[in-house]
Amino acid sequence: MKQSRSVVNSRRERILETLRQNGNVNVKELAAQLQVSHLTIRRDLQYLEDHKQLERFYGGARCGAAGGVWDEKNKIQLCREKIARYAASLVADGDSIFINTSATALGIVKYITAKNVTVITNNGNIIGEDNPSQATVVLLGGELRYMKGAMVGEFALNNLGRVTAKKSFVGCSGVSPDTGMTTELLNEVNINAKMFHRVTGSSYILADHTKLGKKSSFVSCPASEIANIITDREAPRHVVEEFREKGIEVFQVD
Question: What does the pLDDT read at residue 211?
Fold first, then answer.
């Protein structure tokens, strides 16, 4: 029974995380993403509405108008923006950098002030991103997953195998001291892993406080290979200390 309750709580947390990122959720899309029935999703949404964590509408749900998830969403977004801004400050003139499909990692681009920077990415959403430093953008190509804007598959992997970068900035679904960095999508695992290995300088994991200590479905980078994490001051203190005890540098933005 305890395991069953854990599965239910984990699924509802994933629903809230999707809601925080997008502002609303769709029953059909959630059912496909979480591989459960539409009825199960509707029950989850009803439970979350009863606990004032969202507001249901026909076919889906949105952030509640009076506080709750809406306030939390704004706080998390602010944390992610600050993480992106700090990460951008680590980019030096002439750097080439990897950025994966993470929205937080993509946010780095608009804060880069260094000159002659090259951004290598499988994030198709970069096309619509502000680029004030006029960094050169190299898209890896591959199969485009429209919902997330991710470029995946053998084509993207092969192109990634032909380049190296000075630094990599990789977002995640979760990162924990025992499991390492994890993601929800299997087809992004190999690309994320290569972005760690094909760097001549430093690799950074970008993870706001909601992702520290969390585990997702697929491991992109084991804890033994993590060198740097950028998070915020809301991150659980005991998790941060566990990472530091393993020799991992944890940067916490205010």
Answer: 95
Phi, psi of 180 (to 5 degrees): 100, -155
Backbone angles phi, psi at 12, to 5 degrees: -65, -35
* Domains defined for the chain, CATH in brackets: 2-66 (1.10.10.10), 73-253 (3.40.50.10470)
Band of residue 169 on the pLDDT scale cut at 50, 70, 90: very high
SS3 247: coil
Q: What is the arrangement of strands in the sheet containing 24-26, beginning at the earlier edge strand?
A: 24-26, 60-62, 55-57
pLDDT digits (tens, 9 = 90+) for 199-254: 999 999 999 999 999 999 899 999 999 999 999 999 999 999 999 999 999 999 98
Give the DSSP letter of residue 200: S
pLDDT, residue 67, reads 47
Q: Whats the size of the chain, residue-wise?
A: 254
Q: Name the residue among 252, 173, 167 with its Cα closest to residue 220.
A: 173
CB 175 within 8 A of CB 106: no
CA distance 22 to 18: 6
Considering the chain, what percentage of its residues have pLDDT values greater than 70? 96
Cβ contacts of residue 32 below 8 Å, gap of 6+? Answer: none
How many CB atoms lie under 10 A from the CB of residue 47?
A: 14
Under a CB-based contact definition with an 8 Å cutoff, are residues 54 and 61 in contact?
Answer: yes
Alpha-carbon distances, residue 223 vs 63, 182, 190, 241 (angstroms) = 34, 10, 16, 14
Residue of higher predicted confidence among 254 and 176: 176
Q: Which helix (H) or strand (E) holds 249?
A: strand 249-253
Contact 184, 217 (CB under 8 A): yes
Q: Edge-to-edge strands of the sheet including 180-183?
A: 174-176, 180-183, 218-221
Instruction: Between 95 and 5, name the one with better pLDDT.
Output: 95
